[in-house]
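ARCHIVE CARD
SHELF: 3
SLOT: left
DATA:
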Amino acid sequence: GKDDANSTVYLPIDAKFPKDVYEQYYDAFEAGDTALMESSGKQLETTIKKMAKDIHDKYVDPPFTTDFAIMFLPFESIYAEVIRRTSLVETLQKEYKIVVTGPTTLGAILNSLQMGFRTLAIQKRTGEVWTVLGAVKTEFSKFGGKNYRPFKMVSLSGWDSVTMLIGWCHYADWIVSLCWLYSDTIYKLISYQLNN
């Protein structure tokens, strides 16, 4: 993304592979050993917290990065186990500003963030759009005051519909001219939105 000074702002994403710790937990689960499940579950949480702290300390550096990072867990089973532990997820978000994603959620989160950043950019550019629209409104009122009366006279004097159509074409031509006058500004706004 871009910040207010139009500098690049990076989104830190790091993949972590706590496979060994998860396999210990899974083996304990399969064996039905509750004591081993509890200890390996705590070890899994400790490992995930350590990884989150590592990501935060290495990569989160506002204003050069976002104030949060993404931890990508590439195995759906590990991701599901971490997400199942809601207190762990809350700790990761509050203490380390880490969002946990897995194979099925990474794309959705990145798309959501992209839309959020685009919305933010649009909101920042709203002032410019309102300025342009204000200028267009002023031009319309200037032109409309001069040229609207002939349309009333044409309709009141009983002229045929062809004459009315010609009058409206002149009015439409003026609208096109007005758009042409502001086309550079409109083009820049559209280009900015497409490129950011």
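SLOT: right
DATA:
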Amino acid sequence: TPLRDEQGRPHGGIAVLIDVTERKRAEEALKAAHARLTTIMQTAPVAICVAGDAQCRQMTGNDCAHELLGVAKDGNLSSTPGSSNPPAPYRVFREGREIPGEELPMQEAARTGGVISGVELELVRAGGDRTTVLCSAAPLYDSVGLVNGAVGTLLDLTERKRVEEERERLARQMAAAEERQRLFDGGPEVLRAFSR
């Protein structure tokens, strides 16, 4: 700002300089942290969802989450999107019972402020495809400690469940075959015992 004398001629000035070095460093650190977080989310072998509001009405996530839930890459992943948004293209079940939105792990974590760990759920997508997942969730907080969202992970257990069921089926077949072999190896004595 120029300083003027009584005749209005400039004879000096005032300048204010602010050192923004720390602010620039903080901005660069924030950009680097964001890039690291984005890389982690996109390379994680699990679905990761992040709700930006305490009601979990708006959720974003990594590519794995969009694929697992059957939601377009730019779509809202929330299963409780509110009345002004289209419904989610999937339903969530626990032990054969459809779970109301407020009982889902991310919504519960945001509502209670507690961490939810290892909840097994079944997702049923619009086309009828079923996927078993292991879900965990935790609340997110703002700078004054109020819950302002939640983060959740979904680990696809479908293939593991299929292998477990196949192993159990084979174990039952093996036990039945061993029983038949034992009866056969017992010869006439076992046959006489069965015929009485």
